[in-house]
Specification:
Blueprint (H helix, E strand, L loop, with lengths): L1 H17 L4 E6 L6 H10 L13 H5 L10 E8 L12 E2 L8 H20 L4 E4 L7 H7 L4 E2 L5 E2 L7 E8 L18 H5 L5 E3 L2 E2 L5 H7 L15 E3 L3 H4 L19 H4 L3 H5 L3 H7 L9 H13 L1
Parallel strand pairs: 3-10
Antiparallel strand pairs: 1-2, 2-7, 4-7, 5-6, 8-9
Protein name: Epoxyqueuosine reductase
Main location: cytoplasm
Subunit structure: Monomer.
Length: 308
């Protein structure tokens, strides 16, 4: 059986590479013991703001065997989204992850293909694919399976490729060969903490989600609090500051996924273009983009807040 575990794991990693994933790591499914008290404390201190969904399914977040019957292994996958071309300078900015088509759909397709491939080559394997849409602590699982370490900005960091990637999982009911966590390489660096425009990184490795620009511009449904005025550094959807300043992102290379390519029109938009955006333009430019999550009214609210 050990030989099989090794063979199956090798096959899964080779398939993941063929499908365009940056890397693939595997860990044993079970209760995330270290994460439990951290998550509980973070929720108790209301670091999640109005993101009520973070409180739901507490047990399932910490134990994938409650999500997938007979779960034995968590296969973590990274998909690069670092863009070759970026927005013009001096404009309202959107997070690089939202430049192209909505990652949920792009990755789901790849995961479906990977699961089919596993079934065709290994046999009947039960499993489910997860892309940031179910109670799975994806960064914790990716770190457990050696794909990187969780940095001071609470993002998963990799020495090889930085942090501009999506994380997804396949939770399956077969035993595989498991990888091991890697060491933390943040050292004494505090670049992300020093650069955060809203001081959302309240201590190394702890982000107050309710202070993050991404939270205000995407998750918050109410008006943005007036006291935040002038501290958004022109970010209209999401924020990349803590990633942009991270020294490990010197190693980011442009992605090779055509569906993540940015709409050239969006890259060229000036502040004036953003301020004058109509619902029609919004629908055309962001047709399949994650930016649609804020809806037109949400984006307008963000831009009005930045320009006043």
């Amino acid at each position: 059986m050990e030989g099989n575990k090794q063979k199956y794991s090798g096959f899964i990693k080779a398939e993941a590479k063929r499908l365009g994933f940056l890397s693939c790591g595997i860990s044993k499914a079970g209760f995330l013991e270290e994460e439990a008290p951290r998550l509980e404390k973070w929720l108790t201190e209301s670091r999640h703001g109005q993101m009520q969904y973070m409180e739901n399914h507490f047990d399932k977040r910490l134990n994938p065997t409650l999500l997938v019957d007979g779960a034995k292994s968590v296969i973590s996958l990274l998909l690069n989204y670092y863009p070759e071309q970026q927005q013009i300078t001096d404009t309202y900015k959107i997070s690089k992850y939202a430049y192209g088509q909505d990652y949920h759909f792009v990755i789901k397709e790849k995961l479906k293909e990977l699961l089919n491939s596993i079934n065709d080559n290994i046999g009947e394997v039960g499993g489910r694919a997860f892309v940031d849409s179910a109670p799975v602590l994806d960064k914790a699982w990716a770190a457990k399976s050696g794909l990187g370490w969780i940095g001071k900005n609470s993002n998963l960091l990799s020495k090889q490729v930085g942090s501009f990637f999506f994380i997804a999982e396949l939770i399956v009911d077969i035993e595989l060969e498991y990888d091991h966590p890697v060491a933390d390489h943040c050292g004494s660096c505090t670049a992300c903490i020093d650069a955060c425009p809203t001081q959302a990184i309240i201590q190394p490795y702890v982000v107050d989600g309710s202070k993050c620009i991404s939270y205000f511009t995407i998750e918050l449904k109410d008006n943005i609090p007036q006291e935040m005025k002038g501290s958004f550094a022109d970010w209209a959807f999401g924020c990349d500051v803590c990633q942009d300043v991270c020294p490990w992102n010197r190693f980011s290379k442009p992605h090779t996924e055509p569906l993540f390519d940015a709409n050239p029109e969006m890259l060229a938009m000036s502040k004036k273009d953003w301020q004058e955006i109509t619902e029609e333009t919004f629908r055309a430019v962001f047709k399949k983009s994650a930016v649609k999550r804020t809806k037109f009214a949400g984006l307008k609210r963000n831009i009005d807040f930045l320009k006043e």
